[in-house]
Amino acid sequence: MPATGEQLEHLAVQLDEVIHLILEQDNEKASMIDTVCPIYLESAKNLMHYATFRSLDVRGLQKSLKQLGLTRLANAEGNILGSLVNLKMMVDSLRAKNMNHENLPFLSIGEGKKLLYKHTDQIFGEHTKDRRVRIMVTQPSEAATDYDLVLGMVKNGMDCARINCAHDGPKVWESIIDNIRKAEKECSTTVKIAMDLAGPKIRTGDIGEGPKIKKFKPPKNAHGEKDMVFIKLVAEGGHELKSNEIPVDKRWMEKLRVGDDIKIKDVRGRSRKIKVVQKDKDFVLLLSPKSLTLESGAILKPLRKKLRNGMVGELPGKEQFLLLREGDHLIIGSEEEKATLPIFDTEGNLVQAGKVSCSPPEIVHKMKVGAPILFDDGKIEGIVVETASEWFKVKIVRAGEKGAKLKSEKGINVPNLDLGISGLTEKDREDLKFVAKHADIVNFSYVNNEEDVQELLNELEQLGAKDTMGVILKIETQMAYKNLIGILIAAMQAKKLGVMIARGDLALEVGWKNMAMVQEGILSFCSAAHIPVVWATQVLESLAKKGMPSRSEITDITSSVQAECVMLNKGPHIQEAIAFLDEVLVNIEASHDKKEVMLPKMEWG
Questions:
Q1: CA-to-CA distance for 422 and 433, rounded, in angstroms?
Q2: Backbone φ, ψ for residue 99 (5° rounding)
Q3: CA geometry: angle at 519 spanning 513 and 521, to 5°?
Q4: Angstrom distance (rounded) from CA 537 to CA 263
Q5: Alpha helix locations (H) across 463-573?
Q6: H/E/C letters for each residue in 357-378?
Q7: Sorting pLDDT into bands at 50, 70 and 90, what band is 101?
Q8: Strand pairing of 229-235 and 283-288?
Q9: 320-413 to CATH, choices 2.40.33.10, 3.40.630.10, 3.40.50.720, 3.40.1280.10
């Protein structure tokens, strides 16, 4: 049924009102984009137009458009004013009225997409593969010494290598970068290097080292029966010990023979006899019929005559943790004093709450009773029940059926409080000197407002890297999401800009039930600003770590084509994950154009 004149008149009025409001706000907020780099000027204007559009209740307008079979502007962020004007011209044509809209400051249909692609190429380099979406891969420490690992990543489709400044140090970082540069030359491609500043993340303090012991328990075979225990003797100081390795003096180890029996007392004073079953130039393999726990300095007594005793070398201290259960209390202190473990009575009831410090310590003074608090990526949840000048007490409300282990250096999130922790840390400033010299992109962690952005840009300017360094803003706090428009406008002083949706911390901050809405909001506003987005956190996590993707991870990849880059984290099966993602993205992009599904021809039987 054709539209009536009344319907067309009503729609024309609605469109005129929205266009007028956008232009009115455009004039009022013109000063906000004074500092924007010229290459982002049109994008900044469009972002402001879209922000005004989203501040209006346009559901009535969208309903009217739907009734006429016209676009409801759901994917028009990249040129919102141009889309509105285009619709108005169509409606005016149907009304037999010729209205002149040529002088309005808008991007025509398709220009927004072109700007997004241009800005994506600026920060990630021109794409030469059969896919638009780039792949960023977090580099493990081994990438510093294992060139084949890095080469495999590049061959499998890595476009951007991510190095996290929260781990390792300049020597390791430089070795990783050298391997990446070597691999890109060998593959005749370009790989961008992005380095994360650690940022002011709130973490638990040092819980300390436990006893220097190692437990060896016999595994069970397919029938559920206990098998033998294998222990590998290796030379002291050679490398980081694996789970079944014990360090000993190399010269003593070389004198052992296959068949030798060795007596040893474990930490409980139990005597054990273990047998040498294999000898290699780098190790000696022992077999024990029973479980045992060894400590540094334990005496190894060979039963063969004329062979002197050996001794277990320095074992790493067992990592300590605080066991927390629902209903338990935990004290968080500002002083960097030694942590105290919780004390339980013989029936398992908590007698004395455990205590641990936090960093930065000043957050203690800003805690409020009733505030929810999360530990270790949300695995443990609590609520603040008491505060004091140097500590606060938390009641644990969720910690798993058997309790949860809280270890050193685990993240703390307090989503409902502004703790005033923002900007660059001293470590960040020092690391930034290395980043500016060696990397292509700096990933700015825990940005919260425009002032944080300006602080980073000022540092880059002092280092002479403001015009050459790409900047990716990691949106991972509730405050960053609320300040997103101001953050984007402030960051447009840089010439290469991107945004990362750090879905792990962000989900904790905004709440899991709100995460989908927040994620869509970030994608929409970045699309309006023509700024490329990195889709990050737990992408193909199961495949990278265990060798098999989950069904939900495949669905996640399908959604990730809304972004311009997908980030993978490290894992033993990272090569398979990169190759898999590369292939799936190519296939998906054949039937998707950013947010719009392109329906392929289907054969029917």
A1: 20
A2: -105, 140
A3: 110
A4: 49
A5: 478-482, 484-491, 503-510, 512-528, 541-546, 551-560
A6: EEECHHHHHHCCCCCEEEECCC
A7: low
A8: antiparallel
A9: 2.40.33.10
- Calpha distance 297→302 (Å, rounded): 16
Residue 223: the pLDDT is 65
Ramachandran sector of residue 593 (left: φ over 0; alpha: ψ -120 to 50; beta: rest): beta
Q: Strand, coil or helix: what is 211?
A: coil
Q: How far, rounded to the nearest angstrom, does the alpha carbon of residue 389 sit from its chain's CA centroid?
A: 33
Count CB neighbours of 239 within 10 A.
10
Distance between CA atoms of 486 and 498, rounded to whole angstroms?
Answer: 15
Class of the 116-200+422-592 domain? Answer: alpha beta
Inter-residue contact 561 to 531 (CB < 8 Å): no
Structural contact between residues 479 and 446, judged by C-beta atoms closer than 8 angstroms: no
Neighbours of 74 (CB within 10 A): 10
Of the chain, the end-to-end C-alpha distance in Å amounts to 35
Same CATH fold assignment for domains 116-200+422-592 and 210-312: no
pLDDT higher than threshold 80 for residue 105: no
Share of the chain above pLDDT 90, in %: 54
User: What pLDDT was estimated at residue 264?
Assistant: 92
What burial class does residue 31 get, using C-beta atoms within 10 Å of its C-beta: 0-12 exposed, 13-18 middle, 19+ buried? exposed
Question: pLDDT-derived band of residue 593, with 50, 70 and 90 as boundaries?
Answer: low
- pTM of this structure: 0.82
Report the amino acid identity of residue 125.
Answer: G
Mean local confidence (pLDDT), 358-366 = 90
66-71 — which CB contacts under 8 Å span 24+ positions?
67/3, 67/7, 68/3, 68/7, 68/11
pLDDT in tens, 399-456: 988 899 999 989 999 988 888 888 899 999 999 999 999 999 999 999 999 999 999 9
Residue 119 is predicted with a pLDDT of 96
Domain edges within the chain: 5-107, 116-200+422-592, 210-312, 320-413
Q: CATH code for 210-312?
A: 2.40.33.10
- Six-digit token pair at 139? 């580099």
How far is the C-alpha of 161 from the C-alpha of 439, rounded, in Å? 10
Residue range 289-342, pLDDT digits in tens:
888 888 899 999 999 988 999 999 988 877 789 989 999 999 999 877 778 888
DSSP state of 152: H
> Contacts from 381-389 at CB under 8 Å and sequence distance 24+?
382/330, 385/329, 389/365
Q: Which tens digits make up the pLDDT trace of 231-275?
A: 999 998 767 788 788 999 999 999 999 999 999 998 888 888 999
Q: Phi and psi (nearest 5°) for 59?
A: -65, -35
Which residue has 């638009």 as its token pair? 132
In three-state form (DSSP H/G/I as H, E/B as E, the rest C), the secondary structure along 481-494 is: HHCHHHHHHHHCCC
